[in-house]
Amino acid sequence: MPITRRAAVAGLTAALSLASLAAAGLGTAPLARAAEPVLFGVSGPLTGPNAQYGAQWKQGFDLALDEINAAGGIGGRPLAYRFEDSQSDPKQSVAIAQKFVADPTIVAELGDFSSPASMAATPIYQRAGLLQFGFTNSHPDFTKGGDFAWSSSVSQAEEQPLVADFAVRSLGLKKLAVLYLNTDWGRTSKDIFVKAAKDFGADVVVAEGYQPEEKDFRSTLVRVRDAAPDGIVLISYYADGALIARQLGAAGLKQPAVAVSSVYSPKFLELGGDFVNGIYTPARFFPEDPRPHVKKFVETFKARYGKEPDAFNAYAYDALHLVAAAAKVGGPTRTGVRDGLAKIKDVPSVIFEKATFDAATRRIAGAPSVKLVVKDGRFTLWDGAKTN
Amino acid sequence: MTSFLDHTINGLVVGNIYALLAVGLALIFGVSRLINFAHGSVYVVGAYVGLIAVAHLKLPLPLTILAVVVGTGALGILIERVGLRPLAHSVRIAPLLATIGISFVIDQLIQLTFSPDPQALPSLVPDWRFTVGGVTVGALDLVIAGIGVTSAALLYGFLTFTRLGWAVRATAQDRDAARQMGVDVDAVNRAVFAIASALGGLSGLLVGMYYNYISPAMSFQATLKGIVAEVVGGVGNVPGAVVGSLLLGLTESYGIALLGTTYRNLFAFVLLVLILVLKPNGLFASNRQLPPEPMTGTFVAPSRPLKLPASALAGLTVAAFALPLVVTTPYVLQTLSNAWLYAMLGLSLTLVAGTVGQVSLGHAALLAIGGYVSALLAVDLGLPVMLAILAAGLATGAIGTVLVSPAFRLRGHYVSIATLAIGEIVGLVILNWESVTRGPIGVSGIPPIEIAGIPLYSAAATYWFTLAVMVVLALLQAKLLASHLGRTLRAIREDDVAARSHGIALSRYKAIAFGFGGFAAGISGAITAHLYSYINHETFNAQISILALTIVILGGMGNVLGAIVGSVALIGLPELFRITAEYRILIYGIALLLLVRFRPQGLLGTV
């Protein structure tokens, strides 16, 4: 039977790929143990459409890592993390999960970014008894995956009433238009927000969900205008939030706008330009924040990266500190880290001020919130005036 | 009724932006008969060249435009030279795959150079605005419209009145005849790619300035919208592309007006399917126009498939089943389990695309249907998991066939575009049909696979289960292809006119193929859902459809074993390149390009 030379080469290449794939997997296990670092695994996007968030995680992690290691690491051993790129794609995050759970040197895992990628991997982490610490996972069912699924993401059940409080009670808005990112996060947030706003006595006159890749909101904003709201609420991340803010300005919608804390990013200011001035947001921290822990975070971050930190930097920074604190308390083993999370109390945190987990929900309650407004291209403390 | 006017103006403004993309795509399709998946990447490059010119070099607008046009024009020539010219004599499908590989490489290079973070691209056009009806129109809108209409007019003039333009059109009509008449077809292609890419780059620059926002991730959406607009106007029809774009913009705008923002793309893709079914040559095709080149037969290359003796196949299968006894690393087993699941998808696509010649670009939708049916049956109705998976396979076969049936009368690239649209529609229906699918929140707590009451937890058990299902499906498919049915299906691919004149009812046989293919894909999606325990509308996205096609082309169209080998290679390679961290998708793209270049008929050859 005729086999061309090319076909034979191609077949051989495929076979070799398989063999070295197996070798790559096998090679990680046997390693020397002495003075070996305590290792965390990170599963997150470094390439693909969400790569920007993975890049921000890295900045937050590296900052926290240096602080932890400068303070003596974990029981004298240095801390290190291994970041595996999942593209926030479930088929890759489950493979990474298998890789991490089979590697005895890894004592905890952080990530993934999106709910489909994170929650697909949860059963693997849960069965293997390796902590899965999701710090951007606000999906209400994330920590229901098992007692090894923990999250430091601010629960939307807590966040959204704060947004509603700002919009309705502080700013006195009564007829709201809501624009929300139509993902599990945005949808959950919107539902909770609408309920909270109604409880405070406001009406939601129109709610529009948009796809993450959308850039043009002109037609959506005509719908918003026709509903005649007296205020606009953005349940957005910083990039899409800035796009909407610009188009609000261009469409001549002058109503006050309140955005959720995820827009807190220097990029929001950069992408939005003059149009984000006057937008309100109940954020977790801000550049001139007087709290010492936040001050230290903002200053060391600026010194290291030459820009101001954003919300995703802070989530990652906090997450590494929290899991490291748990490893110190419970010991650098898989169950030790998990048990440690239940024991740690009042860990200094940028997002929560003092973080303590509720062992039943495996989440943290009590994130403080500061009311900010964008003024002259900066996030500043809101002075209490009702309109801009 | 002022909002009606406002929505109309908004639709025109947005369509205006799509037009710049669509014109370039139309030009390339008109001449090279190629859907250029790298067009969105060129658009991104245009935006970033603009960023350097504006933010770093502080160039004025005319010089910025010149820099973008020259830079992306040169990139177009490079793409044509490196990616496509070497493939001129190979299979039609090879250049398509090459453009996918090129887009990976360009997007990754941009991301590595400029960081994945979105950046602001300040507009150099003064922000003058005036109000029409209830909406404002800015100076930049007029600049974009001006450039769009001017470039379409210039192109039209170029194609109609210049010698090179005649050569372009002659090449578009019949490449071989043009060559015989002394037309330098390579020069024509080069010119077309340079012009189209310069336009694509220009639109990247203008759209970036328009939104003050550029990011490496915007390439795929740009390609998608450009293709839709182009097809609505009639593939390869340059003035049609402009009108198609405006129509697309209007449809989206009215769609939002009627039902809200979440329905935006649903309207766009329904419009596309309607146009394809009712006027497959586009709105502006005259009835006298020749039918588009019959793609069947020429689309899938005849080649001598690599055939393994039955004993070798049996040996390989035994080795695959024995592997977990030797390799116990769960990571490797999980990766291979993923490969088996994608091999099922590959089997499905290689049947419809390879054997019957219906190249589907929406195959991920079948995974989604299978995943949702099985997950909802198990979660909401408490059906045993194995039964739910089987039911999902059957349901996907049926639903998939019904959904694709409007595309049965189409041929060649039109099938691809129609299936792309149908795939997007399925995703959007899942997103919006909340009472059943739970919308964006997704389905969580999907029970694991159980055999006789014992859940499959370990990586080895998952491996054996997925491998066994995949082998059964592969054997069934091989049996099907060896029967008279297989011969009939191949006859449809080779020459549908001849097949029909022999009394073969085309639609019925296509339905059989889609039904069987849908079953395999549905099973794959269902197993995936039970392994993941959580799915939402993003789990099975358009990227997976592209991956499926890549698997099939790489393995060899219509080749059952090829689908399996292709899947192992394409699921394995990104994992293998993991040590290269941020560079891995770049390396993957280059590997893909090399494979297409040196083995365009697929690793194991077309059957």
UniProtKB/TrEMBL annotation, chain A:
It comes from Prosthecodimorpha hirschii. Pfam families: Peripla_BP_6 (PF13458). CDD domains: PBP1_ABC_HAAT-like. InterPro entries: BCAA_transport (IPR051010), Leu-bd (IPR028081), Leu_Ile_Val-bd (IPR000709), Peripla_BP_I (IPR028082), TAT_signal (IPR006311). Keywords: Amino-acid transport, Signal, Transport. Belongs to the leucine-binding protein family. Residues 39-363 form the Leucine-binding protein domain. Residues 1-34 form the signal peptide. This is ABC transporter substrate-binding protein. One of its GO terms (biological process) is amino acid transport. It comes from the Bacteria.
UniProtKB/TrEMBL annotation, chain B:
The lineage of its organism: Bacteria, Pseudomonadati, Pseudomonadota, Alphaproteobacteria, Hyphomicrobiales. GO terms for molecular function: branched-chain amino acid transmembrane transporter activity. It comes from the Bacteria. This is ABC transporter permease. The keyword Cell membrane applies. It is a multi-pass membrane protein. The chain crosses the membrane at residues 12-30, 37-55, 61-79, 91-110, 130-159, 191-211, 254-278, 312-333, 339-356, 385-407, 414-433, 453-476, 511-532, 544-573, 585-604. One of its GO terms (cellular component) is plasma membrane. Pfam families: BPD_transp_2 (PF02653). Keywords: Cell membrane, Membrane, Transmembrane, Transmembrane helix. PANTHER family: HIGH-AFFINITY BRANCHED-CHAIN AMINO ACID TRANSPORT SYSTEM PERMEASE, HIGH-AFFINITY BRANCHED-CHAIN AMINO ACID TRANSPORT SYSTEM PERMEASE PROTEIN LIVM. It comes from Prosthecodimorpha hirschii. The keyword Transmembrane applies. It is found in: Cell membrane.
